[in-house]
Design a protein that fits this description.
binds flavin-adenine dinucleotide, 12 helices, 5-stranded parallel beta sheet, Rossmann fold
């Protein structure tokens, strides 16, 4: 029933590429517009002139518990079995992060077992002051680790990241911070984790490599939307910025951005883990050394320092009351368009929410399954 349906997709990031592939494999004819001269969106990666792969918009580790999403991406690249580890530079030491048993033992020179850690954290929390139930970011973290560890690992990092007192940030942002009483020092604990051996850009190029997908680069849909909207298209899938689609009718949705500073250094290894956080020192929040992620061998290395900024490429949604209100006003219109079956809004920009890569894939799969069912 989908045979020959004409689809216009805006954006060749992960959301647009997954949608294009699924629809092409369901006999639809897909035209995909991308404003940049390259595909991959925020997952884009490339090789330095010295042959070292780096991620242009911050370190991207694929991690999921969703088998379908994992099998889907594995069709387009083999994956390197990489388990991400992060250290935090605190009191002059590189401490495992998220906080676990080894973090506490190393920081305080203690030798605690799992029950000792539970007891330690309980006492730290008991002598701390915070709102209970937690009302903001600080409360959520202090209620789990106490004020001292909060100050050492979270306060300044969060301030740098958001340029806002953590007391004014929503509890929701901190909701997912893991604290472990065991020695598991992996950053993610999902069942499936890895880095595409071919790189994310190649993975997405492979996804788009289908006879029924036509990719048009360097083309901003919004700059000429009247012409594109004349179609004829059966469905438009939009993965660009939500407020821009509606011509900012309810005002701009704010984002926090990051300035990525890349350096090639004449050393084989710069730091002991893929990412080192710098909560209390320097102006950057963290340094990534990409060779840990990719496993590439070289006498040189590429690192990236991240400086959070107010302006620049949209990285993180700012979920304060003002933006949540605006988002809802836009989403009411989205709902009408989606109910009519003519449009779908998918991905981190079009839905104005933080999405991991696997969540983007699952969400696009679900939206398309519902659309295909409705039109069949
Ligand atoms: C610093 C950082 C680190 C991250 N690390 C991880 C990680 O480790 N693991 C993980 O799972 N996720 C991570 N993510 C999340 C991941 O980047 C996103 O889930 C994913 O990139 C979202 O894909 P998308 O297609 O929704 O959006 P995007 O990648 O932003 O793609 C949207 C595309 O649409 C194009 N576009 C927009 N407007 C128009 C227009 N008018 N006309 C034509 N084209 C248009 C854009 O140019 C872009 O290519 C990270 C995000 C950030 C910010």
């Amino acid at each position: 029933m989908n045979k020959g349906k004409q689809i216009l997709i805006i954006g060749a990031g992960l959301a647009g590429a997954v949608a294009a592939r699924i629809l092409a494999e369901n006999d639809c004819q897909v035209t995909l517009l991308e404003q940049r001269g390259q595909v991959g969106g925020n997952c884009h990666d490339e090789r330095s002139p010295d042959g070292i792969t780096f991620h242009n918009y911050g370190p991207h580790i694929f991690h999921t518990n969703n088998r379908e999403a994992w099998l889907f991406v594995n069709r387009f690249s083999a994956f390197r079995h990489y388990q991400h580890r992060v250290l935090s530079y605190v009191d002059g030491q590189m401490i495992p992060f998220p906080i676990n048993r080894d973090s506490i033992c190393q920081l305080y020179g203690l030798d605690l077992d799992i029950y000792g850690v539970a007891d330690f954290l309980e006492k730290e929390v008991a002598r701390s002051s915070f709102n209970n139930p937690p009302q903001n970011f600080r409360d959520v973290v202090v209620s789990q680790v106490g004020e001292i560890l909060y100050e050492k690992f979270f306060h300044n990092y969060t301030y740098k990241q958001w340029e806002t007192d953590p007391r004014e940030l929503s509890a929701e942002i901190a909701g997912r911070i893991p604290v472990r009483q065991n020695r598991d020092d992996r950053y993610f604990t999902d069942r499936y984790q890895g880095i595409p051996e071919a790189g994310y850009t190649r993975l997405i190029e492979n996804m788009l490599d289908h006879a029924r997908i036509k990719v048009i680069l360097d083309t901003d849909y919004l700059a000429n939307r009247a012409a594109w909207d004349r179609g004829p298209f059966d469905l438009l899938i939009y993965t660009g910025k939500l407020d821009a689609y509606f011509d900012y009718a309810y005002g701009r949705l704010a984002y926090r951005s990051v300035k990525f500073e890349f350096l090639t250094l004449p050393v084989e290894r710069y730091q002991p883990a893929g990412v080192v956080n710098y909560p209390n020192d320097y102006d950057f929040t963290r340094i990534t050394e990409y060779k840990h992620l990719t496993g590439e061998k070289s006498a040189l290395t590429v690192i990236c320092r991240e400086y959070p900024t107010a302006d620049g490429v949209p990285c993180y949604v700012i979920l304060n009351a003002e933006n949540i209100g605006k988002r809802q006003a836009y989403l009411d219109h989205v709902q009408e368009l989606e109910a009519a079956g003519s449009h779908l809004f998918a991905g981190r920009l079009a839905e104005y929410r933080y999405y991991n890569m696997d969540q983007v894939i699952v969400s696009v799969m679900e939206k398309l399954a519902a659309w295909m069912q409705a039109v069949s």
